[in-house]
Structures are given as C-alpha cells and as structure tokens.
Amino acid sequence: MLKDKDIAALNNCLLDDHLLIEVELNVVAEESAKLRDRFNSGDKLTYTEITALPYSESLAIKKITDKNDMQWLTAYAIANGRDLQPLFETSEFEYLTLFIDSENVSLQFKEWLTAYNLIDAFQSSKATGICISYPERKIVVKPERQGRDLDREPMTRIDFMDFLPKSDD
User: Fold this and answer.
1) pLDDT at site 152
2) Is the pTM of this model over 0.70?
3) DSSP label at 72?
4) In this predicted model, what pLDDT tens digit does every residue of 23-69 receive, in sequence order?
5) Higher confidence at residue 53 or residue 155?
6) Long-range contacts of 10-15 (CB under 8 A, 24+ apart)
7) How far apart are CA 77 and CA 73, in angstroms?
8) What angle do CA 144, 146, 148 make, to 5 degrees?
C-alpha cells in the first residue's frame, strides 16, 4: 500500500492522460544482492562489481488511455503498490513509477492483464512484478534548446552503464 506522501505525489500526476504498465523480471542473484547491500551502505564498487548489480528486464509494456481502466488501475496501485519514485522520462513526459509485486496480483488484476494481452508475459515467464508509470509533467523544451540533447529518442530506463568509465580488462 502506498504511503500518504506517495498518494499525494500520485495525485499531482496527469492522471487523465495515460499510464504505462509493464511486466518486469528482476534479476537478483545472491551475489548481486550482497553487492547492492554494500553499495547502499556507501561502499565503493569496482566496475566489474557494478556490472553485477541486480537489474530488471521489461517483458511487455502497454500504454493505457481508457479513463475507466486508468481509474481502476490507480485505485489498485494505491492499495497494492509500493515505492513510488521517478525513474525515467521521454521526450514528452517525466514519469513516476510504482511497483506491484507478483504476490500482490489478484485474480481480478490478472483478468485485466488478459484484456490487455499482458497475461502471457506475466504467466509464461518468471515475472517478478508489475510497474505502473504515471506521467508527472510534460517536458517543455524552450525554443533556444530545440535540437539539443533534450530532443533525443525517448528513454525507457536510465542506463547507468553509459556513465561508467570503460573497463581496461
């Protein structure tokens, strides 16, 4: 269940525009979980260790624009979601994303996944959960900034590997 501060942040999103729903697979090996714990406690990691950190893979994603479905999903997300946070942006929007763990996916939610052709990705794989992303605000590009890196291709996830120095080994 979302906390009051998360619900307040969610209420500031553009709840009548669209939302993105994604079936995810989290890849967390025992060693990568230990590395994540070290990293979260402030330890510096080597390049090789950073590349071994846990990560997620997108198995399927849909853009939802039906107002009734968006309302139902938002109510479900408030009751069953966790960890609302900004994770990515596109050339048009900044998004807030929350997570719904597989064990919190009800039969009614599975029927909804079936209606949007997401059930196969959820059931036929080792999906670990659902991400729902809400557009938080539209990105406004000032005329003098057009054509610069703000007009790049949409990003679906921040790839931290692009920011790391290349390994010599």
Assistant:
1) 44
2) yes
3) H
4) 988 777 788 888 888 888 988 888 888 888 877 888 999 999 999 99
5) 53
6) 10/74, 10/77, 10/78, 10/84, 10/96, 10/98, 10/134, 12/136, 13/96, 13/134, 13/135, 13/136, 14/93, 14/134, 14/135, 14/136, 14/137, 14/138, 15/70, 15/74, 15/134
7) 6
8) 105
